[in-house]
Design brief:
Length: 798
């Protein structure tokens, strides 16, 4: 046979040829075990090394076996990753300072110090000629403001608004930065003109007097119940100089029957939420809007965001459709003093598309009023552009770049250093994205010690039943200078009496206080002496960020605002934040060094062996030990019956015999352990936080990319050792469906047991837990988070 010129030359090597075995059918775990068994038979040494490298031991309570982290045993050199002092404790579940992403922000260039402190941009005017009397208000009102309310000079927005609303009858759009006094800017002209029905210019009474039954003259709408209560409180203080005028509120969560009774008794100024006012306009016949001259829409942008557009359209249509009466039922002429038409006043700190849409619905030939005269003149000339409002100039803003694993201990260190000096900070507000996370952090930080017995010499004080579960003394963040710090929680899922009592308790608290809350407290609330605002979770939009930090530095006071961001894409979020003062970026290390320089005061009832009181410890070892303490506290199990009190973070609960889990023969089978409520709350808070993370506005999702979020690292910030499942399951609970022999794609329901993430069944050791940073794990997480985007529409921010 002739040679065709082709030569095949394969290098086979010295190793013997082995056939590739592929298993089909059966359970997935059985196929994996069989595949590994074949690999061990073919290459025993390499298979054993690979299995040992991939295996991670886990424990459910207490320190890890042998006092070392199995993950650290896989690394070649652990001495340069873990501080030596932290290694000596022998209680590290997984290191906080390894496998963290590197921040791209440069922290070397410190911002130049200001030559002089920034001049407050929302403070009252200081010129002697600027007073309320010169703006056209009656002497009675001006004297009341100066003597009783200690307000001698108006702010810039008040100076521009009050004369306009007193002399003119045109609609107005009030736009000014938060904390600048917009509430009094529209309240004082309304009170002045209603009071003129009863008093002459010289202050002498007229023959005809108006009272609470003389008619409803003004309606003020606000988005939240808390803001309605606050407006009513301010208005009641102003009305003390004219006690014959009456105001009231109609808001959701309260008795509609009592609201109807107050309306029937008579009211001159009504403050309401849109939904409840729409209900009364439809069903309360005694609510007559024929004499209404003013309709005020406070925080109009927020009302549009909350979905009140149809209610607002209905309210404006019904009020305009009712005939405007020239005199009331008692024959008092109204046209001579009150506006001859219905005046609509729209208030907002921003000029967004939804605000412009609300203006088209409610305003007619409106005057644009801002704090700056130049802006008003520019707008009147037709050359105005959208005003960019930022935080007050005296507000000092800073950004803390901290990895996900270190968020919780960094927050504790920040609060601890905040209350290290007496009188430096009296009140602080922590904004968190969702109600479940608010509840968890409140339970985690509150003191578990029994309350001190009352002093028999002190008069008895009746406890407030509404604040028993929302106000408590704090632990971890106290100091010798401030041994008592009062913790408060507030979100929309609480009942209205609880919300009102909690906010009032935070307002009148004389001790240092912390309010953990959602965005329900971000709009319009004026709590005195708030010195610090912490955005633990970034706002869902830049406009919400401006309102959040506006809770401090109000009316010329100084204040601080701190924003937590993750390294990576979130660092670019600072580029779209408008700030009149320098935005200072700092790394988490400086916060931990300052806050953990001294030992942390643990709750007195916990029996964890974590040593946080040793003076020789460094701030790194204290951070590790504090994180371990949180994890042990969550993993403490409880048992039913007599053994329930014997459980502790370091001493597992004993299980009794003869329980409902025993078999039919009654033999001694161990009782099923009961997870601690704090662990259950932590898992639910983690799930809600991830879902809330997916609800950022479309324009800002490039900075808050949920596919870049490391679930295992974020779970550490909730005190968890691994990310729980059921994230893509939505809010409702769904029953567990049996798994098939193949990988089963879930329809979005989670079993809540930590077995699935994003609807895909997974094993605990597939690299998706704590410390997994390889490309395969990141690719799996991106796939799993696709269902979270679908579940975000079901999420209720509370």
């Amino acid at each position: 046979m002739a040679d065709d010129g082709m030569l095949l030359n394969f290098e086979l090597g010295d190793a013997p040829l082995t056939s590739q075995v592929k298993f089909k059918g059966g359970r997935w775990r059985d196929r994996v075990k069989a595949q590994n068994s074949v690999k061990r038979q073919q290459n025993p040494t390499a298979a054993d090394d690979a299995s040992r490298a991939n295996k991670r031991q886990r424990t459910e309570d207490g320190p890890l076996m042998g006092g070392r982290d199995p993950k650290l045993a896989r690394t070649a050199n652990t001495s340069d990753r873990i501080p030596s002092q932290a290694m000596k404790t022998g209680q590290i579940s997984s290191s906080l300072f390894t496998s963290n992403p590197t921040a791209v922000t440069s922290f070397d260039d410190a911002p130049a110090e200001e030559a002089e402190p920034a001049k407050p941009s929302n403070a009252p005017l200081t010129e002697e000629a600027e007073n309320f009397l010169a703006l056209g208000l009656s002497r009675r009102v001006a004297q009341h403001l100066a003597t009783k309310l200690e307000m001698k000079a108006p702010t810039a927005i008040q100076k521009n608004t009050i004369p306009q609303l007193i002399k003119e009858d045109s609609d107005a759009f009030l736009q000014a930065e938060t904390g600048s006094g917009k509430t009094l800017a529209y309240l004082l002209p309304i009170v002045h003109r209603i009071m003129a029905l009863s008093l002459n210019e010289d202050g002498t009474p007229k023959e005809t007097q108006v009272h609470r039954n003389s008619g409803l003259f003004a309606i003020i709408l606000a988005p939240t119940r808390e803001l309605c209560k606050q407006i009513a409180t301010v208005l009641e203080k102003v009305l003390r100089c004219v006690p014959w005028l009456v105001c009231t509120t109609v808001i959701g969560g309260e008795s509609k029957k009592s609201e109807k009774a107050r309306i029937r008794k008579g009211v001159n100024i009504l403050i309401a939420t849109p939904g409840r006012l729409t209900d009364h306009l439809d069903n309360t016949k005694v609510l007559d809007v024929g004499t209404v001259r003013w309709l005020v829409l406070d925080e109009g942008d927020r009302m549009m965001e909350m979905g009140f557009e149809e209610d607002l359209r209905t309210i404006v249509t019904k009020i305009r459709a009712d005939k405007l009466l020239k005199q009331n039922s008692e024959g008092v002429l109204l046209e001579d003093v009150l506006p001859s038409r219905r005046v609509t006043i729209l208030c907002s700190a921003t000029m967004k598309m939804d605000v412009q849409k609300l203006g088209e619905i409610s305003l007619e030939d409106a005057v644009h009023i801002t704090a700056s005269k130049s802006e008003m003149e520019k707008d009147a000339a037709g050359g105005g552009t959208e005003a960019a409002f930022s935080a007050p100039s005296q507000l000092k803003q800073s950004v803390i770049i901290t990895p996900a694993k270190l968020r919780l201990v960094t927050l504790i260190a920040l609060l601890k250093s905040t209350f290290a000096r007496k009188g430096s900070v009296m009140k602080a507000i922590i904004f968190i994205s969702c109600a479940d996370s608010v509840d968890y952090h409140f339970e985690l930080l509150k003191s578990t010690a029994p309350p001190d017995p009352p002093n028999p010499e002190d008069p008895p004080v009746k406890p407030d039943i509404h604040t028993q579960t929302t106000v408590a003394p704090a632990s971890y963040i106290t100091s010798p200078a401030n041994p008592t710090v009062v913790l408060h929680r507030l979100h929309g899922s609480l009942t209205q009496p609880v919300r009102t009592s909690t906010l009032n308790a935070f307002t009148v608290c004389k001790e240092p206080a912390v309010l953990i809350t959602t965005d329900i407290s971000s709009r319009g609330l004026d709590v005195p002496a708030v010195d610090l605002v912490i955005e633990y979770d970034p706002a869902f939009a830049v406009s919400d960020h401006v309102h959040r930090i506006g809770r401090t530095a109000r009316a010329g006071r100084s204040g601080k605002a701190v924003l937590f961001l993750l390294p990576g894409c979130e660092e670019g979020y600072t580029s779209i934040l408008s700030s009149s003062s320098p935005l200072i970026s700092q790394l988490y290390e400086s916060i931990l060094q300052k806050g953990l320089a001294t030992p942390v005061n643990l709750p007195s009832t916990t029996s964890a062996t974590t040593n946080l009181e040793t003076e020789k410890q460094t701030w790194t070892s204290r951070a590790e030990a504090l994180q371990l303490h949180f994890e042990q506290r969550l993993l403490a199990t409880t048992a039913s019956g007599a053994n329930a009190n014997e459980a502790s973070p370091t001493k597992p609960a004993k299980f009794s015999k003869g329980s409902q889990y025993n078999n039919a023969r009654g033999k001694g089978k161990a009782e099923k352990p009961v997870e601690s409520p704090l662990l259950i709350s932590s898992r639910q808070a983690f799930r809600s936080h991830i879902r809330a993370y997916a609800t950022h506005v479309r324009e800002e999702r490039g900075f808050f990319d949920i596919t870049q979020l490391h679930l295992g690292h974020m779970a550490k910030s909730f005190g968890l050792r691994e990310a729980p499942g059921g994230i893509g399951g939505g809010v409702s609970r769904r029953t567990h469906r049996p798994q098939s022999t193949q990988f089963r794609k879930s329809t979005g329901g989670g079993d809540g047991g930590g077995e699935k993430t994003g609807g895909v069944r997974r094993d605990h050791d597939d690299g998706d837990g704590i410390g997994a940073v390889d490309g395969t794990a990141m690719r799996r997480m991106r796939e799993k988070m696709k269902n979270v985007m679908n579940a975000a529409s079901e999420f209720n921010l509370g």
